[in-house]
Amino acid sequence: MPVTVVVGGAFGDEGKGKVTAFLAVRDKPDAAARTGAINAGHTVVYGGRTWKLRVISTAFICRKTQIFVPPGALIKVDLLFKEIDETDTRGRVWVDEKTGIIEDRHVKMERENEYLMKVIGSTGQGVGAAMMERVLRVLKLARDFPELRELLTDTVARLNEVVDRGGLVLVEGTQGTFLSLYHGTYPYVTSRDVTVNGILSEVGIGPRKVTDIVLVFKAYWTRVGAGELPGELPPEEAARRGWIEYGTVTGRPRRVAPFNIEWARRAVMLNTPTQIAITKIDVLFPDARGKKRWEDLPAEARKWIEYLENELRVPITLIGTGEEAEDMVDRRRDVLGPT
Length: 339
Ligand code: IMP
Ligand code: MG
Description:
This protein has 339 residues and is an alpha/beta fold. It has twelve helices and 16 strands. The strands form four sheets. A ten-stranded mixed sheet has the order 9-7-5-2-10-1-11-14-15-16, sandwiched between helices. Helix 3 packs across helix 5 (127-135). Residues 12-13, 40-42, 248 line the site of magnesium ion. Residues 12-13, 40-42, 248 line the site of magnesium ion (MG).
């Protein structure tokens, strides 16, 4: 499976970082690319350590994987270097010459914008402001920053070369389908298309090279910021069920709702997944915690997964059972056959 793309099926925070990290540990990709921008925080817990990443792919935990920041990404220079230090990845992180650079003035512009901050509930990371300048063709790109010179390369050529010689590339998307600028709950959305098509466009890999699309859902749904959340529960009910979470980047409490089959079906339509991952099943079924084999999951958990699989008509191959990257039931061999 040369190119695998990890896509969010809901409102972000589905656990794409964890799923990507798991796939990196298991499949040892030659290269990984994270699209999107620094408004998205991806958490990875591995070997007892926790990283919260906003620039580089959580696939970094596989030491042989070369890490790419593609042209469609928007990053901050200080965050990039901070993450390279924290993940100890100097020498294997590469930035495209055309990657967009967010500067402090973009952050300031957004934070002073009442519509974005109060009505939309933006994360205020300067992403939309930088995107606006990119569309107006005045945004500075990575090639305009001398301090990035040693990291610059043509990431599109390098990633496509890996694919063409039979290597494995893992692509990590950000946010989720219903935060897409085109397909989400506009205007309560982020500043880019975050479905599989947008992800491929940002990274510069053609759709015919993609062999696997992993659509990620969480066992219950959450949303930060404003906009529709189907089936939203009052905060007291969320607390009673143990579904309380806080945003990785902003620390805001997340709004919560039960899993929504209708919306999930639409996410399937938009992203054409070959597989589905469901994270945090241990929150719904505590006896599932830390399990790694399908047979060891509680019967009710297996029944629920089979129900979802029937409704969505896509194999559910990965089931998250805890925070650690390796707390995962991997059914790929059983469900899809040998690869
Ligand atoms: P912005 O893209 O930071 O302007 O935020 C626009 C909307 O998308 C707000 O509702 C944010 O909370 C939401 N959003 C942006 N990035 C993420 C993310 O990574 N996870 C969850 N929500 C996000
Ligand atoms: Mg997040």
